[in-house]
Amino acid sequence: MSDPDFTMLQQRMLAEIAAKTVFSTNYLDKAALDSRVMNAMATVPRHAFVPFEMRPYAYVDTPLPIGYGKTISQPFIVAVMTDLLGVQPTDTVLEIGTGMGYQSAILAQLAHRVFTVEIIEELAEQAAHRLADQGCDNVEIRVGNGCQGWPEHAPFDKIMVTAAPELIPPALIYQLKPGGTMVIPAGLPDAQQLIQLRKDAQGSVTTREIFQVLFSTLEDVALP
To answer: Which PROSITE patterns has this protein been placed in (predicted)?
Structure first.
């Protein structure tokens, strides 16, 4: 497919995200996502972050397989999670679950710095190449257990988690700055909820359930 074809499909994807946002007003308490988020979705080429054989489907509003039993998230969910995170240009963001780097690239458009953790080394390597090709020089990747976060660079203004634990990992809550926001899917596999977690200036935590979702499980394993 040619670049003009991808551009047309990307515009169609953006229109679908806008329409689904209107239908989700009761869940999101808003009928339109932040313009900065939509601009980032319009800027980052999703087809550059999927396996070659999946490129014709890159702008369909659905998850796509990326290998190793993992998927790239549905564009609408990427946009909603990014909007809920409320990233500011001065923010340092932690992402858990790099995949092939699409969500990382979206965050890189909005934040000062992005630190992202991927448990599968081969995916982390692919993400590094794809992000470099797109000029995302404010993203740093490490291979590790996402449940442990990245303590060397904590605390973080915002934390985005793209795989679902049953319970929100305490280490991630600890690594979130006072005044910060985390967006994370959590719960049993058949009852996951997308959650917006906020930590106030005194360190107290509140959570808000958005709607039911289905994500890959966040693996909490010891790495060599």
So the answer is: PCMT
